[in-house]
Design goal:
Length: 212
């Protein structure tokens, strides 16, 4: 496959990109430990969008009739839509620990930073993605729960809550997806610079699209 698109997206910024069925989307973590929130929309019907709950609980790829609810998604798993249709397949990931991506948590937003964390006014992934997809007529309330690439978000049964940890991705690691339908992809380079989510700093990523 040849490279059709490439762009470096700085920390705390976002991007919207269109991809067609069969094309591959590669997200490269340039400095390591960076989370990227990803929202998906059916380009031919923008009301159909990513469902993280269907994605993690419905299917095992290539095994019809097998129902295995999972707490994470990794190579070979499929990101499903709100109509329970395949949107993307995770083709490969190069981090030494596979499947360190979040499909449970709601993305960060201004409310989190201003009210819950008391860090003052700051746009979160929700606002960043909203701006990126606005030219398509989509509103902030249209943004679904995202698939958070590289985010370590694990449940502690002892403590009874979820905990954010350091991402497994190193500088140069990537995650690659194959589009199963025509897609609008909204991306946010997570801006959080507190705790371990992004290793304490929001850093750039490279977005690439490959096709025939």
């Amino acid at each position: 496959m040849r490279k059709l698109f490439e762009k470096v997206v700085p920390g705390k910024n976002g991007l919207a990109v269109e991809i067609t069925p069969g094309q591959h989307l590669r997200i490269v973590d340039l400095e390591g430990h960076q989370v990227i929130d990803m929202a998906l929309f059916n380009l031919d019907n923008l009301r159909e969008k990513l469902s993280t709950s269907y994605s993690r609980t419905r299917y095992v790829n290539g095994k019809p009739g097998v129902y295995v609810p999972r707490d994470h998604l990794t190579e070979g798993d499929i990101l499903m839509s709100t109509l329970c249709r395949p949107m993307m397949t995770i083709m490969s990931e190069t981090a030494p620990e596979k499947g360190v991506h979040d499909c449970h948590n709601r993305m960060c937003n201004r409310y989190l930073y201003e009210v819950q964390l008391g860090l003052g006014p700051q746009d979160g992934c929700h606002e960043i993605i909203s701006r990126a997809i606005a030219p398509y007529g989509l509103l902030p309330e249209d943004v679904p729960d995202t698939f958070d690439i590289n985010m370590r978000y694990e449940h502690s049964c002892t403590k009874g809550h979820w905990e954010i940890g350091l991402p497994a991705s190193r500088a140069g690691d990537h995650v690659e997806f194959r589009a199963e339908m025509a897609l609008l992809v909204g991306l946010s380079v997570c801006p959080l610079e507190a705790g371990q989510c992004n290793g304490g700093k929001s850093t750039p990523v490279r977005v690439e699209v490959y096709g025939n």
